[in-house]
Amino acid sequence: PIFSAGRFRCVTGTGDTTVNTAEDIEALSGQSGKTIAINPVLDRSASMNYGIDVKDPAELRLKDFVRKGIEVLDNDRGFFMMAEGGKVDWAAHANDACSTILDVKELDESVMVAVEFARKYPEDTLIVVVGDHETGGLSVGFGGLNYQTYLARLKNQTMSFQFFTDRHVKRYQRNNPAFEEVMKDVEKVFGLIMPDSPAARAASDPGLILSAREMDMLREAYAESLLPRKQRPVQATYNYYAPYSMSAYDPFTVVITQIISRKAGLGWTSGAHTALPVSIHALGNGAEAFS
Q: Fewest CB within a 10 Å sphere: which of 42, 92, 130, 252?
């Protein structure tokens, strides 16, 4: 038996039955037969929400699919399960450090569900955790911060780059509001403060106040966001988007996430996949074969 659970189109196997409510998914058992189980809450790309965008505690998460998969598949002959935290990659394409970190946490919690099962059957279970590639060239440490990191600055972000694009940027593209009005949303969602904003005078962390250079970068990116996609400069398009998936990445949003990353002490080298090594971890029977 095979169970596949991923952040993208979270489904189980292929079969004759499709379920797409939390109640029907919870009711699945080893006697349910081949079933496609689709998360009842999907974003515009038909995938599960980023962890940062999950506000309803009842919303199903990757760990819930892993737990249900174990319950459905557990049998005397054994089973194979593959679960993917696939939106770690998408968030890193957009250089969205906060969403990347929180979706790694989503994956970590899912792995721990598997570890709980492995502890019951340590001689019969193997868990392997690995990435297929690195994305974005993410590193801890950014020039200009004197070897310091300020990861707490990421906590000001309240939604993913994608949610911000869908909820706010598309509205800007329809209504063309002034840059200063748009920046009020940026302050609320990401915690970045305009230097002439009333919040700048009362800021508990001056490091979140935007510099003149950062303001210029945001003005330029906002102007490009308002252009039809085909009219945007080619070089800017390559810098701001994953080159092969431009529809998901907005220049204004990505410049915001790049700036908040730098202020937190994180660096990005790319919006694409990189040659950085990825780690592999194994636990249980046969783990010594992985290194």
A: 130
Q: What is the mean pLDDT of the segment spanning 38-59?
A: 90
Query: 271 pLDDT exceeds 90?
Result: no
Give the span between the Cα atoms of 186 and 38, in whole angstroms.
Answer: 33
Distance CA 195, CA 207 (A): 11
Q: Look up residue 231 and give its DSSP letter.
A: G
Using a CB cutoff of 8 Å and minimum separation of 24, what contacts does 210-216 make? 210/259, 214/259
109 within 8 A of 63, measured Cβ to Cβ: yes
pLDDT in tens, 68-115: 999 999 999 999 999 999 999 999 999 999 999 999 999 999 999 999
* Placement of tokens 């919303």 in the chain: 59
**Phi, psi of 252, rounded to the nearest 5 degrees:** -65, -45
pLDDT band at 234 (very low <50, low <70, confident <90, very high): low
Q: Distance (Å, rounded) from C-alpha 162 to C-alpha 44?
A: 9
The distance of Cα 23 from the centroid of its chain, to the nearest Å, equals 26
258 near 99, Cβ under 8 Å? no
- Which residues have C-beta within 8 Å of that of residue 273, sequence separation ≥ 6? 133, 134, 135
- Residue 120: CB partners within 8 Å, gap ≥ 6? none
**3-state SS track over 74-124:** CCCCCCEEEEECCHHHHHHHCCCHHHHHHHHHHHHHHHHHHHHHHHHCCCC
CA dihedral 219, 224, 225, 229 (to 10 degrees): 180
Residue 188 clears pLDDT 70, i.e. is over it: yes
